[in-house]
Specification:
It is built from 13 helices and ten strands. By secondary structure, the protein is an alpha+beta fold. The protein folds into two domains: 86 residues; 232 residues, Bira Bifunctional Protein, Domain 2 (BirA Bifunctional Protein, domain 2). The chain starts with a helix and ends in a 7-residue tail after the last helix. The chain binds phenylalanine.
């Protein structure tokens, strides 16, 4: 019996683990309420008197050996956990980084800016709160010009000379006032029009307008520049210019691209014609050049302007313009992979 207990002492001394569960199994085996020591203490009364002393000593030794072992391993495991807390479990899979996404309007704007930068256009910006001169008058829209109605304007009530710009042509005026030709600049920005909000139009949207002023600029230069743009932007190489009217350009045109009629969507978005209107353009009216301090006998040029939302809707097949402004993460997250 005593030899058997000594064997258990040896077993307890030799025991080692770095696993909490295994330690618990060990503890229950030796010290548990139905464990070895409990049985041995129960056995004590049956031990002959002359052996009681030695028996008592060895079971006490077994008890302290097991207890010390459990304590020592417990401490070791705990200190390991603490240091693990500093460095983490190095084998654990990494936490995925949450990557943001660019807004589709920024994506398209950047793309347009890149395309025009490649042919020497710089980027110019101006204020969203404008005065009448830069938004209208300098652009050949004198005070009672009916074309002012084309763009329903938000005025600042206390001062009718102050308004929210209705197009970024105002930036072009500022640029011409401050710079000498040759001028090659594009002006991206937010614009405001007092229009009813629907799935197709919004009272706040974004534009990119372009301006090219030099000597002997021709309408063919305008068309080639726009053709280059539509090829780069949409991969489409057929455009047509339909006569139109803008007070600040003469002649003026609307630019359509041939989108094609391959799919049902093509039919829907082009209303069965295959053609899509994407921007307005024209040769800058000499009056505008004069208003901005440029010698209209020496210089001429072209201008164009497009809505970014419209293009983004085409490229990403977005059916409702309001989605751009709702900041619904389910919408925004879909642009994650884009640069
Ligand atoms: N400013 C015009 C608009 O907002 C667009 C345009 C710009 C047209 C330049 C012709 C030339 O609709």
């Amino acid at each position: 019996m005593i030899d058997k207990i000594k064997e258990h002492i040896g077993e307890a001394q030799a025991f080692t683990t770095d696993n909490k569960d295994a330690l618990e199994v060990f503890r229950i085996k030796f010290l548990g309420s139905k464990g070895l020591l409990k049985d041995l203490f129960a056995e004590f009364k049956n031990v002959p008197n002359d052996q009681k002393k030695e028996f008592g000593q060895v079971i006490n030794l077994l008890k302290t050996t097991a207890e010390d072992k459990v304590k020592a391993i417990q401490d070791a495991l705990e200190s390991k956990e603490v240091s693990g807390g500093i460095y983490g479990d190095l084998t654990r899979p990494g936490e995925p980084l949450v990557i943001g996404s660019r807004h589709p309007i920024s994506l398209v704007k950047n793309q347009i800016v890149d395309i025009f930068s490649n042919i020497g256009f710089n980027v110019s910006e101006g204020p969203e709160i404008e005065d009448d001169w830069h938004n209208f008058t300098a652009l050949n829209l004198p005070e009672y010009h009916p074309a002012r109605d084309m763009q329903d304007t938000f005025f600042i009530q206390t001062n009718p000379d102050v308004l929210l710009r209705t197009h970024t042509s105002s930036v072009q005026v500022r640029y011409m006032e401050g710079n000498k030709p040759p001028i090659r600049t594009i002006s991206p920005g937010r614009v405001f029009r007092n229009e009813a909000v629907s799935s197709r139009s919004h009272c706040i949207f974004h534009q990119v307008e372009g301006l090219y002023i030099d000597q002997n600029v021709s309408f063919a230069d305008l068309k080639q520049t726009l053709l280059y743009f539509t090829k780069e932007m949409f991969g489409k190489s057929k455009i047509r210019l339909r006569p139109s009217y803008f007070p600040f350009t003469e002649p003026s045109a609307e630019v359509d691209i041939y989108w094609g009629l391959k799919t049902e969507t093509d039919y829907r978005i082009t209303k069965g014609t295959g053609w899509l209107e994407i921007m307005g353009c024209g040769m800058v009216d000499p009056n505008v050049l004069k208003n901005c301090g440029i010698d209209a006998d020496k210089y001429n040029g072209f201008a164009f302007g497009m809505g970014i939302e419209r293009i983004a809707m085409l490229l990403y097949q977005i059916g409702d313009i309001r989605m751009f402004y709702e900041n619904d993460v389910r919408f925004l997250e879909q642009f994650k992979s884009s640069i």
